[in-house]
Amino acid sequence: MSTKIKGELFSSRSLVSKKWTFLLCFGSFCFGILFTDRMWIIPESKDMPRPSVSTEAERLKLISEGCDPKNLYQKEVNRDPQALFGEVSKTHNAIQTLDKTISSLEMELAAARSAQESLINGAPMSNDVEKKQLPGKRRYLMVVGINTAFSSRKRRDSVRTTWMPSGEKRKKLEEEKGIIIRFVIGHSATAGGILDRSIEAEDRKHGDFLRLDHVEGYLELSGKTKTYFSTAVSKWDAEFYVKVDDDVHVNIATLGETLVRHRKKHRVYIGCMKSGPVLSQKGVRYHEPEYWKFGENGNKYFRHATGQLYAISRDLASYISLNQHVLHKYANEDVTLGAWFIGLDVTHIDDRRLCCGTPPDCEWKAQAGNICVASFDWTCSGICRSADRIKEVHKRCGEPENAIWKARF
Fold first, then answer.
1. Which of 146, 208, 244, 293 yields a CA-CA distance of 20 to 30 A from 228?
2. Rounded to whole angstroms, how far apart are CA atoms 109 and 136?
3. Which of 114, 309, 128 has the alpha carbon at shortest distance from 227?
């Protein structure tokens, strides 16, 4: 009985509390609306004028016009052609700058790898290489390698007394003009024999040799050329690397002025370009044992610089150094060099001043103000009897004695 009474009282209290709760909530809601209406009045700003309907319409019109594909196309068509050309030119210059940067990085990588290989193979590192690896390294204009042989002592002496500065003048040429000149030679089949000792004695007297890790021999000229460029690029950081024979007359200042005209170009290959026949007959001079690679009998070689004198830029010398173990050698040195570049994006420069004839040819050109870079006899692939005649050629075709010191590279 008591339990039933307690349940009825509890249910009645719950009913009453629900009614009062509903009334209380409703009253609070009404009071809140009244309070909000009176207190939340947005003040009108006097300093910030509201945009008019016409202004808003103009803005919408401008936006819609800018997004209209027809208007966009019309604006593109009406652009100034000069402005378009300027943008294209800027893009082209940016691409060239990027290409130059990439090329420089490739050259530095190749030079570093060459120096590393020299260390790994136990080859002696010169002071030039050590300096080259330090910040602020010296960059030279060109390295001129004079290809010579053990039996060519008289030729070397005739070069020293004509177009190649000797002693202190040669050192001054390196310091002031950035031009390195060296006679290039390897070693005999009998290392340390009498031939090697004679070159060592001559080098102690003049100090103008670049010794190669190469066995000398006429049929090994292609290999010698490869070793020369690989060695030179690891020893000296230069813009150009030149190879010349010891029976050719050279005007150094004119050579430098010729090369600097092309210093902003990439992968430069300079020389007198020719395309001679591929000789398949055995026993003849310049016979090509691999003649079958060049097609049918009677075909000609691809264009390449004649071997008496040619020059390549640093990036190409670095390419040879980096890939020397896989570069194929043909019988003829000049053909071999051209073959290494035939599949590359190389700038071939055909300059006929690098292959003038001996007097009167080079003399007439000098009198006309067109001094030759190099002079030789085609019939002898160099100056005939050069040890006896090069002084005469120098006298009649050589540049003024002070030309090299007045030249600005």
1. 293
2. 17
3. 114
Residue in this structure with the two tokens 């007959």, named with its chain if needed: 281
For 87-132, how does the pLDDT look when each residue is reduced to its tens digit (9 = 90+)? 767 776 677 667 666 765 665 665 566 555 544 554 444 444 444 4
Long-range CB contacts (within 8 A, 24+) of 363-368: 363/396, 363/397, 365/397, 366/396, 366/397, 366/399
Residue type at position 79: R
Given a contact cutoff of 8 angstroms between Cβ atoms, the answer to whether 102 and 345 are in contact is no
Whether the CB-CB separation of 291 and 226 falls below 8 Å is answered with no
Residue 52 structure tokens: 């008019």
Give the model confidence (pLDDT) of 19-63 as tens digits.
677 677 777 766 666 655 554 454 544 444 555 555 555 555 545
* Average of per-residue pLDDT across 307-325: 96
Tell me which residue of 210, 63, 191 sits closest to 146, measured CA to CA: 210
Query: Tokens 């500065």 map to which residue?
Result: 165
> Distance between CA 334 and CA 312 in Å, rounded?
13
Would you say the C-alpha torsion 274, 286, 317, 292 has a positive or negative sign?
Answer: positive
3-state DSSP helix/strand/coil % of the chain, to nearest 5 = 55, 15, 30
Kindly give the pairing relationship between strand 209-215 and strand 268-274.
unpaired
Structure tokens at 3: 């339990």
**In terms of DSSP bridges, do strands 347-350 and 249-250 run parallel, antiparallel, or are they unpaired?**
unpaired
CA 100/CA 264 separation, integer angstroms: 9
